[in-house]
């Protein structure tokens, strides 16, 4: 809730909610004032809303093709602004054609910016807990604009509706300004991250001074591929992304370069398939009941990598488990948050992936597209934060609270509490006060002391 970007996003949201609610309530009345009956006015709103729906699809596809969102929030908002300025400028209902024409601009601009704003803001909130809280806050506060929009087209201002049109136009100007400010701010933050001179604002991870100093002093952080090219048989490394060793080995073997995005993406996904050991051979499979034979010695997965980035998933022969389209799909979706899968070397596009059975315990994977990697990725640094210990005492019979107090007193007497940051006792479960059976009477309670 302390992330200022969320509150800029709320203003963008209000640009939609106030304007959409206000116009939706007033549109039939505005058309009826041109001399139509109420039924005719309702029917005449259909083309206006249909145009807004078509405009939404058009701008969504265009934004996806251009791989940007913010511009396709500003442009539709600007179109809607033209509509509001238009209806404010004409003599109503003296020009019925224009009065009916300008609302097409309003829906054609307001509707596309709704989906653009939601997807853009959501994509720029990370990690997941910040996205969850931020989007919930955005929806709650943003939708309050509906209460405003529903009350700005006042009957005594008909047919000009200065407040309704004027306030809608004003909040759209504020939304456009907020979108531009947010875009420039995100661009600035990303540029700073690229220089490694600022805290990773998106994830909340601090880049330690020791790492910054080591990097700036020119310490040589060589790649796995470089080590293999120097003749290394074994490469000792710190923590790396799970699939990166597969990428490095395949790139070395086939001589791929940094711009071999299609091939690198294939190796990236191949590494993802085998990074969790026997998950892909049935170890983490919801259809485990269909596993043949024993399940006590699952075979480890094997990747047969091709030079074009295609690969076959198989496993050790003579071991338990299986490799099927379903086990591979289950592993593919593990930890995947969307059609784009990010790595420091490449971004894999998964919406065209094809997974086909290629024989017993052999699955062919193709159709993976590669995209240039992002300018920055997170650095994970682990620090020694201390230790935690817990114990369990099972208490049975009656007087559980008194027994728990007695054990707690004894344990605290034996421990030096000054050595702990935290020492807490918790009792889980209780025997009923008047049990009707011996079975329920003998149900134990669990006293759990925890120390840090």
TrEMBL record:
Mind listing the UniProt keywords for this protein, alphabetically? Membrane, Transmembrane, Transmembrane helix, Transport
Main subcellular localization, coarse class? membrane
Q: Which residues form the Acyclic terpene utilisation N-terminal domain?
A: 223-438
Listed GO cellular component terms? membrane
**Keyword Transmembrane in annotation:** yes
TM ranges: 7-31, 43-63, 70-91, 97-120, 132-153, 165-186
Q: Which domain of life is it from?
A: Eukaryota
Q: How does it sit in the membrane?
A: Multi-pass membrane protein
Taking the record's annotation, the residue ranges forming a coiled coil are none
Signal peptide: which range, if any?
Answer: none
| KW Protease (keyword) present | no
What Gene3D superfamilies does the database record attribute to this sequence?
A: MFS general substrate transporter like domains
Q: Where is this region: Disordered?
A: 433-452
Give the location in the cell: Membrane
Report the PANTHER family cross-referenced here. DUF1446 DOMAIN PROTEIN (AFU_ORTHOLOGUE AFUA_6G11420) (PTHR47585:SF2), PTHR47585
Q: What is this protein called?
A: Acyclic terpene utilisation N-terminal domain-containing protein
Organism equals Verticillium longisporum
Q: What is the lineage of its organism?
A: Eukaryota, Fungi, Dikarya, Ascomycota, Pezizomycotina
């Amino acid at each position: 809730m302390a992330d200022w970007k969320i509150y800029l996003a709320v203003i963008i949201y209000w640009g939609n909610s106030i304007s959409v609610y206000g116009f939706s309530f007033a549109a039939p009345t505005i058309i009826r004032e041109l001399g139509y009956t109420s039924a005719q006015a309702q029917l005449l709103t259909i083309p206006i809303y249909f145009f807004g729906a078509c405009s939404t699809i058009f701008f969504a596809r265009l934004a996806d093709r251009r791989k940007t969102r913010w511009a396709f929030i500003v442009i539709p908002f600007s179109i809607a602004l033209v509509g509001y300025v238009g209806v404010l400028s004409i003599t109503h209902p003296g020009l019925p054609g224009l009065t009916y024409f300008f609302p097409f601009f309003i829906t054609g601009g307001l509707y596309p910016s709704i989906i653009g704003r939601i997807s853009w803001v959501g994509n720029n909130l990370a990690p997941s807990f910040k996205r969850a809280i931020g989007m919930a806050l955005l929806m709650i506060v943003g939708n309050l604009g509906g209460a405003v929009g529903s009350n700005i087209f006042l009957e005594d201002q008909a047919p000009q509706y200065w407040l309704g049109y004027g306030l809608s136009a004003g909040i759209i100007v504020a939304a456009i300004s907020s979108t531009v400010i947010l875009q420039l701010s995100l661009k600035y933050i990303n540029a700073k991250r690229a220089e490694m001179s600022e805290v990773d604002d998106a994830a909340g991870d601090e880049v330690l001074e020791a790492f910054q100093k080591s990097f700036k002093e020119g310490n040589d952080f060589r790649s796995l591929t470089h080590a293999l090219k120097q003749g290394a048989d074994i490469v000792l490394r710190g923590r790396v992304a799970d699939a990166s060793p597969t990428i490095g080995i395949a790139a070395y073997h086939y001589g791929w370069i940094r711009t071999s995005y299609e091939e690198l993406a294939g190796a990236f996904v191949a590494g993802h398939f085998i990074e969790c050991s026997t998950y892909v051979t049935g170890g983490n499979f919801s259809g485990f009941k269909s596993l043949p034979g024993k399940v006590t010695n699952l075979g480890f997965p094997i990747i047969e990598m091709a030079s074009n980035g295609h690969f076959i998933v198989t496993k050790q022969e003579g071991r338990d488990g299986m490799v099927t389209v379903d086990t591979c799909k289950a592993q593919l979706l593990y930890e995947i948050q969307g059609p784009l899968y990010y790595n420091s070397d490449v971004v894999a596009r998964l919406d065209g992936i094809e997974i086909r059975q290629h024989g017993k315990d052999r699955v062919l994977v193709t159709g993976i597209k590669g995209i240039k990697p992002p300018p920055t990725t997170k650095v994970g640094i682990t620090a020694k934060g201390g230790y935690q210990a817990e114990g369990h005492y099972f208490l049975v019979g009656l007087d559980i609270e008194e027994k728990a107090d007695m054990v707690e007193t004894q344990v605290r007497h034996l421990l030096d509490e000054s050595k702990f940051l935290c020492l807490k006792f918790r009792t889980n479960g209780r025997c009923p006060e008047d049990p009707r059976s011996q079975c329920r009477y003998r149900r134990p309670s669990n006293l759990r002391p925890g120390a840090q």
